[in-house]
Amino acid sequence: ESATDDGSVPVIDARTVFQGAMVNQMAFLAEQDEALSVGAVQSLIRRNPAVLTYPESSVLTRGINSGAIWLVANVLNPTDDPILRRVSVRTGWLEQVDFFFIAEGQLPQRFIGGDRIPLNQRSFAKRIPSADYPFPPGETRLLLRIETADPMVVPLYFSSVAASHRREQSETAFYSFIYGVMFALLACSLMLFAGLRQRRYLFYSLYTGSFVAMTASYNGIGMALLWPEAVGWQQWAPPLLMLCFASSGLAFATNFLSTKRRQPRLHKTFQTIGVAYFALFVVFFALGEQGLALRLAFLVAPLFSVLMLYMSVSSWVAGNQFARYFMLGTLASVVGASITASTVTGMIPYTQLGYYAVDIGMVVDAILLMLALADLVRKNEEARTAAEQNAQTDLLTGLSNRRGFLPVAESLWSLVTRKNRNVCVAMIDIDRFKSINDQYGHAVGDKVLKVIADELYRSRRRGDLLARWGGEEFTLLLPETSEAEALKVAERFRHNVEQLVTNDRGKVIQCTISIGVASRHSEHVTLDQAIAKADEELYRAKLQGRNQVSFSRMSGKSVENPLPAD
Length: 566
Ligand SMILES: Nc1nc2c(ncn2[C@@H]2O[C@H](COP(=O)(O)OP(=O)(O)OP(=O)(O)O)[C@@H](O)[C@H]2O)c(=O)[nH]1
Fold this sequence. Notes:
The chain is α+β, with helices and mostly antiparallel strands. It has three domains: 11-159, Immunoglobulin-like (Sandwich); 166-389; 402-551, Alpha-Beta Plaits (2-Layer Sandwich). It is 52% helix and 18% strand. The protein is built from 15 helices and 17 strands. The strands form four sheets. Strands 1, 2, 4, 6, 7 and 9 form a six-stranded mixed β-sheet that branches. Helix 2 runs parallel beside helix 10 (352-392) and helix 13 (442-459) packs across helix 14. The longest helix is centred in the middle third of the chain and has 41 residues, at 352-392. Bound molecules: guanosine-5'-triphosphate. The site of guanosine-5'-triphosphate has 16 residues, from strand 11, helix 12 and helix 13.
């Protein structure tokens, strides 16, 4: 049959190699209620050429569940030799694409592709529906029938086989990069989860993992590499995985931003919505309503983006510093997803970058979220170290407190005991400190305490352990120190403090200290016993008139081990 009769069917020169998509070189018509055969379409066009419309942009986009369409053109080969061309529709999620090549004096040729067809039953066992055809001299009618419940996006290419290979290579490189980064982050977070047992790493893994699975399900890589025969799964995987992606993202966000604690009602709402949309999905699945499941998923996806953005911004505004990277990451993924969604639904003109925007945005998001996790670990670590230090440090004087002092002193004590070395303990108390408080006030008392503490700290030898024991009392551990040396040190302390002058608004305040010293002379003496003994000596110094050092060698008797010997 002649195809050239009416001039309403566009003509493509077979010699042309189109660099980009070229659906605007063809005419299209949408099937109405029932599926049409090639013959029916041909006669429809012949009877009434007005059924054809002409796409204005190079990629045809018609939204979700839009029904099957036909594309038609005449390919003219003005040479004497056949010209081999590859025709392909570079969208991985179209369910069925039929290519028909009808040339005069030749048997009509049909090629079939699409994700409703098991990989090995497609004309080309490829992710993308394609057909190679040697256009004979003269005119060939090219017809394509495309059917899908998913968004109808038709970036049609008409090129040499070599040009198609180049395009495939660049697509492979792109997806290798995206999946490489995602898998690295996924593996990293899984290992962190295994090691740290913190659920946020698990949610992060699920979020990045479901992104990989979701994109692999709709771009055709999943079927090309992982489930070549699983046609049923392929039809339901994209909406299901989109829901998984959204819910794991929300689980990560609520965990990371502590939504349960900070906004309990919002958290409850998320859980309810999550359960509701999975329940709806199950209902649609049971009814076999793939289109409705897709609509649900495409409704949830932007809702999810808006929620994530709202949560991170409100958390950041509320002063949650960890939300910073989180917010930037979410912003990147939301912008990327919006650009791709607008591209595939035809709201903005089709570009390759627009088509890939969701993947790029998601990689940026995943990297920034990993950074947010690392940031959180660092801040928690800093807070923990600070809390630990605070718990062991006396805030007024900056010296160790009892909690800071005892563990270090205990281990030093057992070390010198084991090596049978000298060690002494001194207890230091400020004389008549109550009267300073009474006379000048508590604040001045604090100041004097601090001045004396600083002086003691300056006067101590390196390696001696000084701590605020409590109130106006200090303790000093002197390892590797004989009694005589300890007494010298104590006397120096006493003398230095006696010389010390604190000024308070013109008034001069002077203080003295009393010191009790004890040494370990028997190997059975514990640190506690030595401290008790030094305390006794301190009491004696006070009784004897203050501002003095009191020392007594522990008698074997008084430090006797209270446990009865066998
Ligand atoms: N300003 C201030 N006073 C403190 C602090 N800790 C303890 N004190 C005071 O130190 C005083 C200690 O009084 P006492 O135990 O009676 O002994 P004292 O007045 O130093 O007399 P002696 O030890 O017998 O020489 C009390 O009035 C406490 O309130 C502190 O951190 N700051």
